[in-house]
Structures are given as C-alpha cells and as structure tokens.
Structure to design on (229 residues):
C-alpha cells in the first residue's frame, strides 16, 4: 500500500483481556518496527523485524507482549492479560531495509485504552 | 544503554520568535541523529537527519540542526517560527551497530501563539 496501515485505530479493552494490534507495512519494506508512545513520554522501542525474524526484541516490557510477522509483510503485536499501564499509542514503522534508521515511515498508530 | 534527553517538555513562543530545542544523547560510538515532528492528529514525520559530513543539517520548513560531537548534542533550530509549527518534536538516535532501531527522546511540545 501507499503507507503503513495500522488497525484498529482505537481499541478499548477490559483489564485482563487479550488484544491484537495489526500493522500492514509498505509493500516491499523488509524491516518493521513497533514502538509505544505513552502519555507525556517519548517513543519506546519494542521490537523490530527483518523479514519474519526478530533480531531485536529487547524492548518488549514483559512476557505478556509478543509479536510475529508472516510472509515478510503483516505483523501482529499481541498483549495478553492487559493491564492499565499498557494503555498507550502503539506505533508501527517500516523501512526498505534495517540500516541506520533510514527511510522510516510511521503508521498512524493504535490507541489502546485498558479500563 | 543509550538514552536521549530533550531538555524542554513544553515551549511556548510567539510567531516570528527564534526556536532552539535541546537534544543530548549518551552513546560513545558512531551515531545517526534524527528529528521527527508530529503535528496534531497526524503521524510522525521526518524533519531532518544527520549521518555524516557537514554537522549543520538543513531540513524541511526552514528547520536546521547542529551536531556537536564533543557535547553529544543535536539541537534543533529555526530562526522564525510560525503558528503552523505547533507540534511535538522528537529527537532520535540510531547506533550503527543496532540495525534500524531508533531511541527517542521524551519529546518537546511546541506551542506557537499567532
């Protein structure tokens, strides 16, 4: 597609439920990144994919968070047993290749609210 | 661990005032530096970037930034701001040995009064 597409744009969930956030990167972009933006804070790196593998998942805050990417394209970020502190905007970005932060394109994000 | 620090959380200026937003990073190796902007209701966009060469980098919309290696700084400047510059500004660092991973600062909210 023309840009990075994320869905849903907004998600309200009850504490303890599982959620799945989807990212559809720009066609042909091999690198895909997930970030989290909490109120009053900057963007926090979560994980990045090169193709279908994740060389760096150091930013995942706990084992409740997981992500996968299939076919070198769509990625899903799953949060199990959501907590209120998980409330944030989850941003996805893609780039042609994972070098030097070149050519990042960000999606509009999914705003997750845990009540 | 790498970190990025932006000194100002919220800056309020009148139109035509000059702007300087501070950014410092902690990493001893080779870095690439970025400023991103997020206008209200829009997604993050790249404002400018530094990889190598001239430490004074010019970006879109009249913005520029200067990389001072000895100070680990990459401050953003604009001589005369406009109301349309109202946005949140993020400084980010990428270390050459960490793929495309960016480490972001906390962001600075800029409000420009018409």
């Amino acid at each position: 597609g023309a840009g990075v597409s994320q869905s849903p744009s907004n998600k309200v969930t009850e504490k303890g439920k599982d959620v799945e956030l989807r990212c559809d990167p720009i066609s042909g972009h091999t690198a895909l990144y997930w970030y989290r933006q909490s109120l009053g804070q900057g963007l926090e790196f979560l994980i990045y994919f090169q193709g279908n593998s994740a060389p760096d998942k150091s930013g995942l805050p706990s084992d409740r968070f997981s992500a996968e990417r299939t076919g070198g394209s769509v990625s899903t970020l799953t949060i199990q047993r959501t907590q209120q502190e998980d409330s944030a905007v989850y941003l996805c970005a893609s780039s042609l290749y994972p070098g030097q932060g070149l050519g990042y394109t960000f999606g509009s994000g999914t705003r997750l609210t845990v009540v | 661990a790498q970190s990025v620090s932006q000194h100002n959380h919220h800056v309020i200026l009148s139109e035509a005032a000059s702007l300087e937003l501070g950014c410092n990073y902690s990493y001893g190796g080779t870095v690439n530096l970025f400023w991103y902007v997020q206008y209200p209701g829009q997604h993050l966009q790249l404002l400018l970037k530094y990889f190598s060469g001239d430490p004074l980098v010019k970006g879109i919309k009249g913005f520029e930034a200067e990389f001072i290696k000895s100070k680990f700084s990459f401050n953003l400047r604009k001589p005369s701001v406009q109301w349309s510059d109202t946005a949140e500004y993020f400084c980010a660092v990428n270390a050459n040995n960490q793929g495309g991973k960016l480490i972001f600062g906390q962001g600075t909210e800029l409000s420009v009064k018409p």
Observations:
- The radius of gyration of chain B is 14 Å.
- The first strand of chain B starts at residue 3 and ends at 6.
